[in-house]
# Entry
Amino acid sequence: MLSDGLAVNGSELVRGLTQGLPPGITVTGGLSGDGDRFEETLVLWDGPPAQGMIAALGLYGNRIKVGYGSMGGWDPFGPERLITRSKGNVLYELDGKSALGLYTRYLGEHATGLPATAFFYPLSVRIQGGETGVVRTILSINERDHSMTFAGDMPEGAYARLMKANFNRLIDGAVGAAAASHKAADSVPPDLAVLISCVGRKLVLKQRIEEEVEGVRDVLGAQTLLTGFYSYGEISPFTLGAKCELHNQTMTITTFSEQ
# Structure
């Protein structure tokens, strides 16, 4: 599944897909990206590439084997803070204070480059009672109402925590996603692997971004054809048996083989 990356709440998109599909159907894919420009994202569907489009392709058959996995590799820092005011994917307050004000104080001089610099410092969002969080990236900021718009939901009552890059762990995350996708396909050597990596990972890793692909190649083997793109959001279960979610700042891999 491929979607416009700017005109959509990725969390609502995933909910709509999973609620409308029969049980047992797995969804993977991503939101199209525009690098660090945040100006325009396009999707091709039955005509020229256009904004506001979503394209989905369903595969079935007795001989097809599909695997999937998604992992990040970011380090949390600072305390968890309660989301006290939000609406959908728009965040207003953390611990009763301006979320944008708190965020810019943490970023210091890097705040002048928002929203692009937010790729280097995403937020981890954890629902109360949940042990693991999902990473959320800022798409835009509004200085008039001191709000930040994210690629997915920022629910009130959840906890948010700042994260920062760790180069080695980011690359390890790509390798882990490859291993999870391989395992989900019963370790059958894949013919094709679709790699969807967040734009933020590319901006952070810079010339080391090739190491992501090299690590995936080492796991999946030289016979696997690799393709993919850099996204504003990734859609997949973390591992086999987990629920489908929107992720940010991950490497998400879907593998295909024919037996």
Summary: The longest strand covers residues 225-236.
